[in-house]
Structure formats: C-alpha cells, structure tokens
Amino acid sequence: MNAPTDEQLLQEYLNGKAASFELLLRRHAPELHHFVARFTGDSIVAEDVVQEAFLQVHSSAGAFDPTRRFKPWLFTIAANKARDYLRKLSRRREVPFDAFIGNENETGQRFLDLLSGGDVLPHEDLLLEEKHTFVRNIVEQIPTRFSEVLILAYYHRFSYKEIAQIVGIPLGTVKSRLHAAIVCFGQRYREAVAERVKGQQ
Q1: Which of 39, 78, 149, 189 is the most exposed place for a label (fewest CB within 10 A)?
Q2: Is the same domain home to 81 and 115?
Q3: Cα 31–36–40 angle (5° rounding)?
Q4: CATH code where residue 14 lies
Q5: What's this model's pTM, rounded to 2 decimal places?
C-alpha cells in the first residue's frame, strides 16, 4: 500500500486525525532543520524556526491550497521565519558549491563547473587545500538574497519554480539571482586569491 502524500496527510489532519500531523513532522523536520541551519548558521535557532514553522502549519492548515504541493509551502514558511532572523542579526551563511544547480534535470551543472567554464578560474591548489574554509569566508560576504536561492538550489534540489514559490519572487528572478550570485562569488573569489598570492610574495 502506498504511503499517503503530504497533501493527503494534511487533509487527514484537518479532518481530525492528529497522527497525520505527527507524520508530516517526522517526514520533513530533519530536512527543514538542515535548510534553516545552513541558512541562519545556527543549529539552535534552526530548531526554534522549525518548531515555529510547524506551529504556523498547524494554525494555517485550513488556508492551504490542496492543488499545490505541501513541501514548498512548508519551506516558504520556514524561509520567511529564517529571513526574519537574518534581518535581526544581519548574518550570512555558507553554501556548498559542488552540488548541482536546482534539479539535475534542469541544468546538470555544478557551481564549480560554471566557475571553471568562464572568466573565473579557480585556483585548484587552493580549492584542494583549503576549499571549505576559503569558500565559506567568501560566501559570508554574499548578500542573503543570493545565499538563500543557492541553499535551496544546491542543498535541497528544489526546482526553479519551487524556489520562486518559496522565496516569493518570479521564476525569471530566480534564474537571474542565481547567475548574479555566481558572478558575485566569482569576483570576490578572484580578489581573495589575488590578495592571498600578493601576501605570499
């Protein structure tokens, strides 16, 4: 027997079946926590945001459009709450750049593939030696509006359409924002590498 869909579980919850909400929580809380933790940079805050997100699902379940998918709606709620947190602290968060952009069916490319294919040429020795720290330091300089779409695309493989729904921007803006994020990262990457080389001379 096939497991019920998220949408079916939410409807069951609305019909009085409390266990269906608990199943939704178990099904999505771990990934949602990873998303918020990466977005905010704080695992403890992520726990609070996830709890608040599901509390809002509980209170707003009756307003959910059953013709839409539940998961993007849930991530939209969490993203809004995470943005509120970031606005308060003015912090930015790292994202990985070796994962695919959006769904693999959409591009089949990784961020690092794009860097190596244009006018941005990564310093391979540096990437191999200090990849995580170096990239993280650069990404922390990127505006939150860029890191947000990067996290959703690279970590969670949401489609561009779903990212547009979660962030609340047009589909074309998602694509242009990802491109702008890549350009921004590339520029700051080159500057950081040049500064590093200069310091070693």
Answers
A1: 189
A2: no
A3: 155
A4: 1.10.1740.10
A5: 0.59
